[in-house]
């Protein structure tokens, strides 16, 4: 037997060779058993179900890529960012949700810009010096379609758009793609103040009698 202390002449070399082979086979069997045990532990590990979150959630590349693309998204916009000249009033809420273009273009020479817009009228509360508060309608620009365009092309096109009006530019909204001008306010805005919209000047005027 391997490991015996009794010497056996003329058979020592053969026996040592057999022992070495046996030890090698035992070692391989031991490593194989460890590998099978490791694999079985992996197979029996619980897989998180849909909706369950683990500590190390991994989001696939396609999910990350699709969510980063240039498209319209819901964005919180500060009202005073849209109406910076109105410093006499406080609006509640102070920001509104609008659809705006945002996302990556995968090229530093491109940027995500709107190619189609529309006006939307939202009702908010307008407060003046914390003395009077009433519902008020404001007009905002929403983006309908987006596109990745070269920055220099956009700048060139905007340069060729004639301004809507030299005076009171804030009353107009200009489509950067078509250069078309439209009134920022709507008839509803004016009617809420018992006024009428002047489509030429885009101002709310007193109704003619």
TrEMBL record:
Please report which protein family the annotation says this sequence is part of: Belongs to the PDGF/VEGF growth factor family.
| Location of the Platelet-derived growth factor (PDGF) family profile domain | 57-153
The name this protein goes by in its record: Platelet-derived growth factor (PDGF) family profile domain-containing protein
Where in or outside the cell it occurs: the entry states:
Secreted
**A Gene Ontology cellular-component term:** extracellular region
A single GO molecular-function term is: growth factor activity
Q: What is its main location?
A: secreted
- Taxonomic superkingdom: Eukaryota
For this UniProt record, give its keywords in alphabetical order, as a comma-separated list: Angiogenesis, Developmental protein, Differentiation, Disulfide bond, Glycoprotein, Growth factor, Mitogen, Secreted, Signal
In the record, biological process GO terms are: angiogenesis; animal organ development; cell differentiation; positive regulation of cell division; regulation of anatomical structure morphogenesis; regulation of multicellular organismal process
